[in-house]
Model the fold of this input.
Amino acid sequence: MSATLGQHRRTKTISVTSGKGGVGKTTIVSNLAFALARQGQRVLILDGDLGMSNVDIMFGLKAEANIHQVITGEIEVSQAITPLGHGIDLISGGSGIVELNRLNSFERRTMMESLAALDGLYDYMLIDTAPGISDNVLYLNSAAQEISIVINPDPASLTDSYALIKVLNQEYKQSHFSIICNQVRDEVDGLALYNRFNEVVSRFLFVGLDYWGAISQDPLFRKSTQNQRLILKHDPTSESSRQLLNISMKLERSLVRKNEKAGLQFFWDQVVGVA
Ligand SMILES: Nc1ncnc2c1ncn2[C@@H]1O[C@H](COP(=O)(O)OP(=O)(O)OP(=O)(O)O)[C@@H](O)[C@H]1O
Ligand SMILES: [Mg+2]
Done:
């Protein structure tokens, strides 16, 4: 574990989610974790793509333990932590475990309660979710302090993200979301995409959006994924690395203002309301 016991700074929880699949969540979470850890922050990634998790692959590793073993009581949550290097820890969501798709409310509570035991050991917990509006996605998002939604210019990404926001708002009372525009041509295009999306969302839903920035479509990005490398580490001077760094700074700044809601205890408390 890259964290030590007895420290009481609260853990900030951020989910990275999307309506449509394949928009870059896992890549973004991995690179943001790297950016934050390099600033000296203690970072835990929860791979919330339960049963289909792949954050470990991004770091060129294979996690031995996963959250399923914690839920079944086989191991303690501290034993489910896989160090990814760079000062980042991971709790894997397991791979090929169908049961994780159908967690009942007792199992979900067990999961959240176990995670709450890690409160204060990390500065940030980044949650990579599955795409869509499955129960697990809605549940993890609604427990997080900050929900960031990745969209791209594909019209289906916009309609699916709109649907996700609508469900989180109407069923889970979430009213604030941060938007990351990925796979855009440039930053001007990214802002235009955000403005278009914001206009539709604010016309029909009572929610507030915050813009966290854009990442350009970049062949280096895909290549990094294929080679199980982090673009921020291996191509730090590339345009997308600079854009990822900007997003991590925006994330840090926006969470400073919301410190009162922080903490894995809060993560757990939220669940009592929504489980
Ligand atoms: N800005 C970008 N430029 C080029 N390729 C990108 C960019 N962002 C993501 N990709 C590529 O898109 C693919 C999907 O990315 P990733 O696995 O991170 O998406 P995801 O949202 O986590 O997918 P899923 O919904 O299946 O979990 C990867 O090959 C990744 O390299
Ligand atoms: Mg993913």
In short: Residues 18, 21-27, 49, 131, 182-183, 215, 217-218, 221-222, 225, 240 surround adenosine-5'-triphosphate (ligand 1) (CB under 6 Å). Residues 34 and 86 are 7 Å apart (CA to CA). The radius of gyration is 17 Å. Strands lie at 12-17, 43-48, 81-85, 88-91, 124-129, 146-151, 176-184, 208-216.
